[in-house]
Amino acid sequence: MNPESVDWTGIPGPRWYQPDEVADAFKALIRTTQADDDQGGGIRSVVGNDHAGTLYPAAVAGTDVLLHIIATCPGPPRNAALWVLLDWWGCFQPEPGFESYIDQDGHRVKVIPAIIERVEQAPDIMCVIGEHDTSARGLVRRLLRNLERGWVLEK
To answer: For 2-56, what is each residue's pLDDT tens digit?
Structure first.
């Protein structure tokens, strides 16, 4: 999913959510030449509160974009996207008051279950990446282990 194809302004969030910055943060991640977890800071800050460890409803669509980056952008962008999901997993919780929201189709979406569901739908591509991309292999394995355990802190 292209970050520009999402109507970020149509996704609710707290007053400090700035939807006009989301697509640019994802485009910066796609252009990154660094493979470490620091490259995901922009994403963690635009679809959540990185300092408080909370996620806004935009993290759900953000997960779709991250999975698209993981599937189609090898190298540093893939690894940075994997790091974002790993940073969130079990450590971040929904922003208070935004645990669920009504999407643009009128459906109630629970933030954490929706993120988990999206990652659950991607194990085939994760396995292919884990087999063929040696730089992402360890990150993919960690994400799949986390998926098996559920939304709990990695041990």
So the answer is: 888 999 999 999 999 999 999 999 999 999 887 555 667 889 999 999 999 999 9
Take residue 136 and report the two structure tokens written for it: 């992402």
The total domain count for the chain is 1
Strand partners, 55: 48, 94
**Main-chain dihedrals φ then ψ at residue 48, nearest 5 degrees:** -175, -175
Domain that holds residue 34: 3-149
Instruction: List the 93-94 sheet strands across, edge first.
Output: 48-49, 54-55, 93-94
Residues in contact with 130: Cβ distance below 8 Å, sequence separation at least 6, in sequence order = 136, 137, 140, 141, 144
Q: Which phi and psi angles does 94 have, rounded to 5°?
A: -65, 150
Whether 155 maps to a domain, the answer reads: no
Residues β-bridged to residue 109: 101
